[in-house]
Amino acid sequence: MIHRALKLSRLANTIAIPTRLGLISVHSRSPSPSPAVRLLHDGTDVLAVKPVALQMTDYAFSHARSQKSDESYAQGLLILEQCLSTQSGDSHDTDSQNSKGMVLLAMATLLADRGNFNEAMEKLQMVQGLTQSSLAVRVAATEALVGLNLELGHVYLRSSRPGSLVHRDVYFLPDDTSSVLADKCLELFDKDEPRGSAGGYLAVEARAKAVKGLVEHVRGNLEPVKSCFQAFLVVEDSAGSSAALSYGEFLHGTRNFSLAKELYQNVIQSVGGNKGFGNICTLAACNMAPDEVLLAATCALGQLEAHTGNFDDAEEILTRALTKTEEQYGTCHPKVGVVLTCLALMFRSKAKQEHSSALLIQEGLYRRAIELLKALPLESEETMGSRRDIVALARGGYAQALSVQQNRKNEGGKMKRWAESAWGSHRMSLAEALDLSESSGKVPIIDVRISRVL
């Protein structure tokens, strides 16, 4: 396997292949100047990277995710470390820094896949230091940092890296950190001169504003969310799938179901069917990577169908999302638990509307979801960090299923109290999230990318 990676490092063919970070066009090297660099500055929106870096990145992802084991991921990271060591450490030209940044984004993504968020963040912070890299590379790193912080919840993290945003043994609020990071991402556009086409620059800026919009949505500040997406509306087709998904969730949450559905479907079609060259807006990492966005858009569409009473469509879409999640991450990954929670809530809404019970189905889904989400025991005094709201939602729904069974009311009551205590949504109560009603005007959406309830 390592021999294969070393062999790849000697290849220098002209290629254009999809990576798990997005679709990027790369070109063979010429003595001077580089064709890739000319492409970046001649007004096209193609990201300049070295072919070897792209080839080894794709191979590392394929190997890591083929077996979905700790060993295969460790070997994938080893390939990327080998690739990183071949990059010129002192080179400050754009394509060299882009290549290094892309490898670091890939390493962060593999680390995040296995739940190593702290190490993933360190790689992303290294990308932010590549000041001569394309603005799109640094925006992708900051977007991923925001996404990981949003997924973390309230936790302790350790870091030995000087200057890290996450310091050793410090308890912090990742939502606040995400807001600061989103603001810093927007500040990049005050410091950097536009490179490439004006349309490409505006598209990346719209993507950065969409990240800020997602943060404000999580924090329950819907009024500023709307303004964050004004730039997206101007460059809608080129701002990237993650921005489109975030805007769709905002529309969904404000009951503009028809337009939200259209956006979700567009995201699914564009991410699932994009086989051509990528542009500077497609590069993404960690829980903002294209495969994560595709999964989240599919789950969001399934939830929307349930919210509008189309339960057959909702079940089919969410079941498809579950199958895809298990194929991508393995059957025991916490992300599977998030999708199972979406399914359980759909069956709950269906049973309520159709005046049926489906208690056995709901109970089985909730129990498995809670297990995969690695929920703390009910008697634990610790505070749960990542996926806390999803666990609270699953346990809250499970508690309601238990409360209608005479011999399990006490168990349900205990679970309900835990869920209410753990619930951390800024926008709605747990009861409002579980009991969707026209009068409340609030629609809960599970964002599978960040494992949060919007």
Describe it:
- Helix 3 runs antiparallel to helix 4 and helix 16 packs parallel to helix 18.
- The protein has helices at about 1-10, 35-40, 50-65, 70-85, 95-115, 115-130, 135-150, 175-190, 200-220, 220-230, 230-235, 240-255, 255-275, 290-305, 310-330, 335-355, 360-370, 390-405, 410-420, 430-435, and strands at about 15-20, 20-25, 155, 170, 445, 450-454.
- Residues about 5-20, about 25-45, about 155-170 and about 275-280 have low confidence and may be disordered.
- The chain contains 20 helices and six strands.
- By secondary structure, it is mainly alpha-helical.
- The longest helix is centred in the middle third of the chain and has 21 residues, at about 200-220.
- The radius of gyration is 22 Å and the shape is globular.
- Strands 1-2 form a two-stranded antiparallel ribbon.
- It has a domain at about 290-454: Serine Threonine Protein Phosphatase 5, Tetratricopeptide repeat (Alpha Horseshoe), CATH 1.25.40.10.
- The two termini are about 45 Å apart.
Give a quick account of the main beta sheet: strands, pairing sense, barrel closure: 2 strands, antiparallel
Mean pLDDT: 81
CATH fold field value of the domain at 290-453? Serine Threonine Protein Phosphatase 5, Tetratricopeptide repeat
Outline type:
globular
Distance between the termini: 43 Å
Low-confidence segments: 5-18, 23-44, 155-172, 275-279
H and E order = HEEHHHHHHEEHHHHHHHHHHHHHEE
Number of helices: 20
- Helix fraction, binned, reads 55-70%
Number of strands: 6
| CATH architecture classification of the domain at 290-453 | Alpha Horseshoe
CATH classification, class level of the domain at 290-453? Mainly Alpha
The side-by-side strand order for the widest beta sheet comes to 1-2
Question: If you compute it from the alpha carbons, what radius of gyration comes out, rounded to the nearest whole angstrom?
Answer: 22 Å
